[in-house]
């Protein structure tokens, strides 16, 4: 806005300071992951001057940093979390695939076909997004118990897919709306069937949108807490739920927890950078286009 | 002629097969739980007989007379309002600050995105450590500038616990607002600004008379999407305070969850979660009407 050099300088400095304040907790948490216990429990808190250690990662992931480079030894112990990370990845991936598949089909119809009650249908899909998870989790807990779905991938995949469906449908619809429907119409003139148009023409054109939808579904499943807490008990657990394992009667294993937390951010962050172009559209369920 | 024919075909195609999987899963996982919740709210689990018994409107009467319910309603609304105001104001201020093509600004926007991908439960844990009365970096900072007494741990003092939770909430979700507002700001047309500059308007006037009105749709959507989540708050309070100390951080969702799973009050828990649902639906739909948000 303002052209003067000093005003621009001031703005740049202010911007870096503000972002640094927001970044600080992430830095601090990551530093805890590399700290020995006595450096964590120190007053005043140690921010920069500490001897880094890889012990926390070794305990949590079995990864150790020796003279021969990085070695991975799958270990036991209560705090060995690699299987839980695997659980999270499986649930997030499969629920994403399911949600995106169902949503893409439905979104195509909502974007292209004129039928009575289409607006109310979109409204209904949106209103399912307003359901508090607790209102779904309580009944689902009893149903899952009856069907033996507690602690199963199937159960978690279904519930996370459901949770992501409103977002995925509305978002995919907005991406389909961007593709001119004349393309469909001319293909129909050439004798193509609806499904063929969908598969051969519209889907490839919406690739970027599908990727963005998938990334957001993945992240929301990855970070989800209440369903995972309620519908899993022992043999299956996701990363957010398992973080409470580190709180024990003899104190909290902050270093180990931080190692898990720091590692859990990385894959999600890389994913989200890949679709940054569509991020705002995704966060607003397709209602704002960048 | 051929175009008209094609158009007819497009319109006459039946949407049912396309929508069926979605409808099926939404019916099973939202409509069924809703009905089950309503049914459950007229029953209660009787531990002695290990069975659900019909209790009529007892749960609803209990709800009306339950001071803890009203308290958690007030706490949820307080949390909702404070978080929303802070996230909106801070979000707008930071978005205006970052709305520049200068060197490094793209990087800064990317860094802000990081907070959004951390599981809220883990964010809660992060702040639990940072607000630890002895070793926490936030507590240390506040104590050393004299704002906090070391005898009053942030999360274990009734008057400050909610603020302690809100810090985590606002930290994680202000960048959400920043990203949305930035996108809105970047899409604004330049002409009104040029005209205002010529007329010699101050930058506050420009913001108040041009930016804000043109951003109203963006703001409305941000409020709706964030507001829905704020009202269902569970993760932070569950991890950081479990509702305590006393009942100073009990959100509706947490209260409903604990009634069901900690106190085996299945019927009452269902009643509470139904009330939460109805409040959200009513407020959100009113808001959609009033702010004319469209999908």
UniProtKB/TrEMBL annotation, chain A:
Asked whether the UniProt record includes Cell division among its keywords, one would answer no
Q: Where in the cell is it found?
A: Cell membrane
A Pfam short name: BPD_transp_1
- Which residues does the UniProt record annotate as the domain ABC transmembrane type-1? 85-275
Q: Which UniProt keywords apply?
A: Cell membrane, Membrane, Transmembrane, Transmembrane helix, Transport
Q: How does it sit in the membrane?
A: Multi-pass membrane protein
- This chain's protein is named Carbohydrate ABC transporter permease
UniProtKB/TrEMBL annotation, chain B:
Q: Which UniProt keywords apply?
A: Cell membrane, Membrane, Transmembrane, Transmembrane helix, Transport
| Recorded family membership | Belongs to the binding-protein-dependent transport system permease family.
**Taxonomy of the source species:** Bacteria, Pseudomonadati, Pseudomonadota, Alphaproteobacteria, Hyphomicrobiales
SUPFAM superfamilies the UniProt entry points to? MalF N-terminal region-like, MetI-like
Stated membrane topology is:
Multi-pass membrane protein
Q: Where in the cell is it found?
A: Cell membrane
Q: What is its main location?
A: membrane
> Which residues span the membrane?
16-39, 69-98, 110-130, 170-189, 210-228, 266-288
| Designated name of the protein | ABC transporter permease
Annotated ABC transmembrane type-1 domain ranges read 73-287
Q: Which CDD domains match?
A: TM_PBP2
Can you tell which superkingdom this protein's organism belongs to? Answer: Bacteria
């Amino acid at each position: 806005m303002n052209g003067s050099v000093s005003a621009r300088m001031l703005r740049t400095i202010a911007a870096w300071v503000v972002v640094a304040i927001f970044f600080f907790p992430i830095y601090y948490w990551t530093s805890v992951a590399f700290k020995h216990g006595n450096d964590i429990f120190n007053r005043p808190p140690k921010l920069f001057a500490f001897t880094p250690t890889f012990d926390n990662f070794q305990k949590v992931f079995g990864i150790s940093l020796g003279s021969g480079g990085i070695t991975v030894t799958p270990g036991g112990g209560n705090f060995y979390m690699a299987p839980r990370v695997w659980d999270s990845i499986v649930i997030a991936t499969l629920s994403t695939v399911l949600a995106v598949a169902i949503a893409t089909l439905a979104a195509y119809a909502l974007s292209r076909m004129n039928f009575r009650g289409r607006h109310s249908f979109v409204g209904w899909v949106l209103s399912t997004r307003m359901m508090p998870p607790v209102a779904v989790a309580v009944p689902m807990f009893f149903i899952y118990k009856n069907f033996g779905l507690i602690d199963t991938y199937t159960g978690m995949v279904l519930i996370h897919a459901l949770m992501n469906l409103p977002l995925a449908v509305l978002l995919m619809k907005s991406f389909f709306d961007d593709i001119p429907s004349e393309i469909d119409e001319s293909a129909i003139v050439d004798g193509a069937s609806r499904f063929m148009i969908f598969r051969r023409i519209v889907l490839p054109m919406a690739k970027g949108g599908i990727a963005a939808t998938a990334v957001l579904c993945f992240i929301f499943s990855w970070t989800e807490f209440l369903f995972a807490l309620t519908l899993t008990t022992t043999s299956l657990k996701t990363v957010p739920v398992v973080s409470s394992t580190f709180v024990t009667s003899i104190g909290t294993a902050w270093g180990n927890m931080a190692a898990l937390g720091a590692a859990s951010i990385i894959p999600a962050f890389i994913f989200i950078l890949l679709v940054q172009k569509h991020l705002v559209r995704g966060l607003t369920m397709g209602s704002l286009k960048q | 002629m051929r175009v008209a024919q094609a158009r007819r075909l497009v319109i006459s195609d039946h949407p049912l097969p396309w929508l069926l999987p979605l409808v099926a899963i939404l019916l099973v996982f939202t409509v069924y739980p809703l009905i089950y919740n309503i049914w459950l709210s007229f029953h209660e689990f009787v531990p002695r007989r290990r069975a659900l018994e019909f209790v009529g409107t007892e749960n609803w009467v209990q709800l009306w007379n339950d001071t803890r319910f009203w308290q958690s309603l007030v706490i949820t609304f307080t949390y909702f309002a404070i978080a929303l105001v802070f996230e909106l104001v801070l979000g707008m201020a930071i978005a205006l600050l970052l709305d520049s093509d200068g060197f490094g600004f793209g990087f800064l926007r990317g860094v802000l995105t990081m907070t959004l991908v951390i599981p809220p439960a883990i964010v809660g844990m992060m702040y639990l450590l940072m607000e630890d009365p002895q070793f926490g970096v936030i507590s240390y900072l506040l104590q050393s500038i004299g704002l906090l007494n070391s005898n009053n741990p942030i999360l274990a003092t009734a008057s400050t616990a909610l603020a302690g939770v809100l810090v985590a909430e606002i930290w994680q979700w202000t960048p959400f607002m920043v990203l949305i507002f930035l996108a809105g700001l970047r899409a604004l047309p330049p002409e009104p600004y040029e005209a205002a500059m010529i007329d010699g308007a101050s930058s506050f006037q420009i913001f108040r008379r041009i930016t804000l009105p043109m951003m109203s749709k963006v703001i409305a959507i941000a409020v709706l999407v964030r507001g829905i989540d704020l009202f269902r708050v569970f993760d932070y309070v569950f991890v950081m305070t479990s509702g305590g100390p006393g009942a100073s951080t009990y959100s509706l969702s947490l209260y409903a969850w604990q009634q069901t799973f900690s106190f085996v009050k299945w019927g009452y828990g269902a009643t509470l979660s139904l009330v939460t649902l109805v409040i959200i639906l009513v407020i959100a739909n009113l808001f959609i009407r009033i702010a004319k948000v469209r999908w």
